[in-house]
Amino acid sequence: MSEPDDDWSAGVTAGFIDPVSMEDDPAELFAGDAGTLDADVRRVLVQLLRRKFLLAEKNPAQWRTLLENQQIIESRMHDLFVRLVVDHDRGVAYKQQVRSVELDVPILLKDDPYNRAETLVLVHLRTVFQRERGTGETSARVDIEELEQTVLTYFDPYDHNLARRQQEVRNAVQRLAGEGLLAEESTGRYRITPMVEVVLSREKLAELNEWLRDRNEATA
């Protein structure tokens, strides 16, 4: 095999082939990889697309990666017609489906509405959180027994299957805890996180409370 041409070798060392940035020429993470993001940034992007929220408190390393690479992550999400929202005060990031009457936007994100029990638990959590903050408390907490007692009053009074209704409430608590709205501090004792304000605005809370009052009066 012939040796490399001396002039060509000199050209390489002299800088005819310039180094490129990681964004333009990354190391492949898998066979045929054409992506341009570092592995950690890709993981954050996937988490944002997979989960409802990314919480700074629960995922500090991913939160730092998000803030350091927010522009490129935002760009990737915009390519999918998805908007990134980063709430620095509450330490939460989440996504929103872009919708437009002027533009034909394919819908990527499916609505995953809360069921009856989840909505009722959410209303109670938001109410307690708002009340405690209004008195100057920096945090709000609830017990599972308190949640059950309050939420069950909104169920059908003629439904006498107490065990089934209690399980519905506990399943709702598990979902909301999994989404970061609740943090279990001890068995059956939960701290309500500021995420509850993102999910349920003050205006929506007032609307739901009025609906529940009307419903209770109708069944009284």
TrEMBL record:
InterPro entries in the record: JetB
Pfam families with a match to the protein in the record: DUF4194
Organism domain of life: Bacteria
Name the UniProt record assigns to this protein: DUF4194 domain-containing protein
